[in-house]
């Protein structure tokens, strides 16, 4: 039997691509924004339907590895949750992680890949030519974008005395711990377990569960979670506060480690001070230190619009204005497109929109969106430079929310 994520009939219009004043493409999908208590503030499409979380799951996988004894701090902790572009710095850190755990590149079971960073790839090629090597084509599991996560798994296996040759087996103690952590943070059992692009188990969660999980990681890491209240209700995700703190501190201290200099996730973390983690097939999750979170899935698998959509939705609920520990107050409800396939709803939280203490301006948010969003190009201008002939814009369902909020 083949299971499925949501269908086009369930989806909302998240973004459109406009070329020469003609709508060329439409990105449809689902999205959800949660407040620090895990309550939906905005929902679009079908965020309750499971999606494969892909690399957006990595913070939970890193926390699981650390909880088993993988000694990860600083850039190493950030690399454990990274989809890195194999810059020289990334490779150096992962190599040190392997060495510290008494492991080698041959222990990695992720696919071999070329460094995605062109400068480092050329450096390796030049080094090989200078040494007279016959093979100057650098390719290794070390350069795969998930090598940091795999090294964390291996370090955890080594720490508990488990077999390192089978560390990707869903029944391996490390992967069982990952499943336990995922369930605890998401407060839902995965709907399915598959094989990710790197070979590791990947879980299908609702977007609501994914957003809830990463929001909790950020709230724990920043000290914004009410541990007493959560513990009283038996929410065992609070047991991982130390690991969450180590992870978030590492990511914010070295944003380059999570993806790469100038890359979208790194740019969002550096400029806006919020966590961002994209995944393959159009998935992204972001969370603020206060615990606001957003998860997005583009149904066509494209990531072109995910950053624009996620940041816009966080901006709409005032998530950038709330510091750690912000509590929600009364609410005013509004709905958009009720009864249609692309149902959207928005709830306005008075504690966020009143008495604003903005540490991130709307201009900074907009500038960041522009920095991570590729323009629509065509031909060259009079100076021979690539010409911009269009733009990516918010889809109707998000535009409707924005208009309703600010009317």
TrEMBL record:
InterPro entries: Asparaginase_II. It holds the Pfam family Asparaginase_II. This is Asparaginase. It comes from the Bacteria. It comes from Brevibacterium spongiae. Residues 326-387 are annotated as: Disordered.
């Amino acid at each position: 039997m083949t299971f499925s994520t949501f269908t086009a009939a369930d989806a909302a219009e998240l973004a459109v691509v406009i070329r020469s004043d003609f709508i060329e493409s439409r990105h449809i999908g689902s999205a959800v924004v949660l407040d620090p208590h895990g309550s939906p503030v905005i929902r679009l499409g079908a965020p309750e339907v499971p999606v494969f979380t892909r690399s957006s799951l990595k913070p939970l996988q890193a926390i699981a590895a650390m909880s088993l004894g993988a000694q990860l701090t600083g850039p190493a902790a950030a690399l454990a949750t990274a989809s890195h572009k194999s810059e020289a710095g990334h490779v150096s850190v992962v190599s040190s992680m392997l060495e510290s755990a008494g492991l080698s590149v041959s222990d990695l079971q992720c696919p071999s890949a070329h460094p995605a960073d062109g400068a480092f790839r050329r450096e390796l090629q030049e080094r090989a030519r200078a040494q007279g090597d016959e093979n100057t084509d650098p390719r290794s599991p070390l350069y795969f974008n998930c090598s940091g996560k795999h090294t964390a798994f291996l370090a955890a296996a080594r720490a508990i005395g488990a077999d390192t040759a089978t560390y990707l087996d869903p029944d391996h103690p490390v992967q069982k711990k990952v499943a336990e952590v995922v369930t605890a943070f998401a407060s839902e059992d995965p709907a399915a377990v598959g094989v990710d692009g790197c070979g590791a188990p990947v879980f299908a969660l609702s977007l609501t569960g994914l957003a809830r999980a990463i929001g909790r990681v950020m709230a724990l890491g920043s000290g914004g979670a009410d541990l007493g209240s959560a513990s009283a209700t038996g929410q065992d995700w609070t047991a991982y506060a130390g690991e969450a703190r180590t992870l978030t501190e590492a990511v914010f201290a070295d944003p380059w480690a999570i993806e790469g200099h100038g890359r979208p996730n790194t740019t969002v973390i550096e400029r806006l001070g919020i966590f961002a983690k994209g995944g393959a097939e159009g998935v992204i999750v972001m969370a603020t230190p206060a615990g606001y979170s957003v998860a997005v899935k583009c149904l066509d698998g494209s990531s072109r619009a995910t950053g624009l959509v996620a940041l816009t939705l966080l901006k709409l609920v005032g998530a950038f204005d709330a510091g750690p520990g912000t509590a929600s107050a009364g609410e005013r409800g509004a709905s958009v497109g009720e009864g249609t396939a692309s149902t959207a709803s928005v709830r306005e939280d008075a504690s966020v929109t009143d008495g604003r203490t903005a540490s991130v301006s709307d201009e900074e948010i907009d500038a960041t969106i522009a920095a991570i969003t590729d323009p629509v190009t065509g031909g060259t201008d009079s100076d021979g430079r690539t010409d911009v002939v269009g733009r990516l814009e918010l889809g109707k369902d998000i535009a409707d929310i924005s208009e309703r909020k600010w009317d």
